Amino acid sequence: MPTQVFTPLVKSQPKISIKFKFTIAVIISLIIIMGLGVWNLSIIQAKAFEQEARTRSELVLNFGQASRNYVIKQLAPAVEKHTKEMIFEAKSNAFATRSIFEIFNEQLPEYIYKQPALNPMNSANKADDLEKEIIAYFQKNQNRNQNKILPEKTGYKKNQNTELFYVAQPITMETSCLQCHGRPEDAPQAIRDKYGTTNGFNWTVGDIISALMIYVPTKDLRANQASMIQAVLFTFIGITIVLITLIYLLFDKLVAKRIYQVSQAMNQAALNPGVTVRINDKGRDELGRMAKIFNIMADSLDDAYANLEHKVAARTAELEKTLQELQITQTQLIQNEKMSSLGQLVAGIAHEINNPLSFISGNINHAEMYSKDLLRLIELFRQTYPQPDSPVQEYIQKIELDFVAEDLPKLLSSMKIGSERINQIVLNLRNFSRLDQAEMKSVNLHEGIESTLVILQHRLKANSDHPEIVVIKEYTNLPLVECNPGQLNQVFMNLLSNAIDALVSHWENHIIKDGTEANFTPQILIKTEMANSESVKIYVSDNGSGIPEKVSSQIFNPFFTTKPIGKGTGLGLSISYKIIVERHQGSISCESELGKGTTFCIQIPVRQA
């Protein structure tokens, strides 16, 4: 078997290769990792962003708180020592701090300082909606957390499409504030003149009446955050592209091409089982081991394929033989059933004929005796009365008594001969009817031959197709032979039928068509003799056309026939061979000469082993 070392020639890739799938899987994995990384980075950046914004806000807030504390604790008391007059720039911490931040905003206008209140004395300090919510939040938490320092509150606010981060701290009413924010009548006249007596009064010590809020811009922080994320994202994308390219190239070299080589080798092995395919892969990794295992498997498959071909051929021959035997057996069973039915029919007919025949043959002797007595009586009557009366004489002449007296013994004799012949035919029919018996028994072979001839008698007689076929019998005194009589009768039937067919065919093809051998007389010779002390021979010969030599070697093969379609199954001689050789331990042979005829010889033992 030729061996082919497989070298991959990449002609056509599968629609979706494992390399493509692996690359897609890597890309998806990297995208997921990148997404998780960006998401995690966003969280970190958000925290850093808020921390930076808080740091900025706290710096400004601390500055504002320091300014406020300075006014409350140092500037206001110092001015109070010199004058009792209300000087807003020195005694109002909100006014002073706001003024300081106005100067501060000249450099940093986006930074906002506010001290909003729900009911401020100065309307400029009126809290907006967000600030109201924050003050309400502080007040609510003050009620829940008595005597505890309230935490500051942070968040984001949109101001004219600009994002601001805010930090808010609660402002609690202190005793020093009552001078201006207590009862209106106790407030300095300057405050009442400037702000009136409606808002900013009647506050209680300890209440949260305002919040200190610092707004800082986040635009630059957002820009820095976006720039950082963008830089990281682009870096990650670049690394991903490099990794995917490297993985693609390495996978293609280390895995994909080698896997494709293995798959092509498997495909080649499947398409050409008779060609040995080998993979030339010296790698020591899993794929190299796969190639080695494939080569081992290919060797095993080669051996198995060779053995399989041998086994298939042997098995096919065995199956053909078995099928042939089954067909023979089936045909033989059908033939046996037909012969059995024929035997039963013949036995029934013989029985029905035998009953009236017994009466006829049994009474013929008495009728012959009675007729002789009557004829003797008539003769005595004629001697005693030589001149009978006229009526008697007329009746004697009418019935031709002399002719009747002469012909009656002949009639009775012919009837006796006919009844004896019928009796012999019935006996032969009864012998032939034994063919349905399956057991071995000792029988007279001549009786079987004669009974078969009786069945075929109608074919031996002359008709429109052929003249009478003469049967010549040369019987030797044979002992009783132990056999299956029904099966032997079937063999006799097959041989004699074939002989008749051969003679009819010879007559039709050579005598009628060619006009030759005008004096031809079709004959069948049946001869029996002792082959030795332990076996007998039966010859069945015909003087037909004979069998060609190339055909004679096949005549015992199943289903072989030279007869036209529909006139033979080709199993007659095959079944006869099995009956004689396999079931009776005998032999059957054929000798034939073209133009002279054919002789079949059967030899069977007298006693079966």
From TrEMBL:
PANTHER family: HISTIDINE KINASE (PTHR43065:SF50), SENSOR HISTIDINE KINASE (PTHR43065)
Subcellular location(s) per record: Membrane
InterPro entries given in the database record: HAMP_dom, HATPase_C_sf, HATPase_dom, His_kinase_dom, HisK_dim/P_dom, HisK_dim/P_sf, Sig_transdc_His_kin-like_C, Tll0287-like_dom
Coiled coil: 305-336
Keyword RNA-binding in annotation: no
Enzyme kind, highest EC tier: transferase
Transmembrane region(s): 20-41, 228-251
Protein name: histidine kinase
UniProt catalytic activity: ATP + protein L-histidine = ADP + protein N-phospho-L-histidine
Major localisation: membrane
One Gene Ontology MF term: phosphorelay sensor kinase activity
UniProt cross-references to PROSITE patterns, sorted A to Z: HAMP (PS50885), HIS_KIN (PS50109)
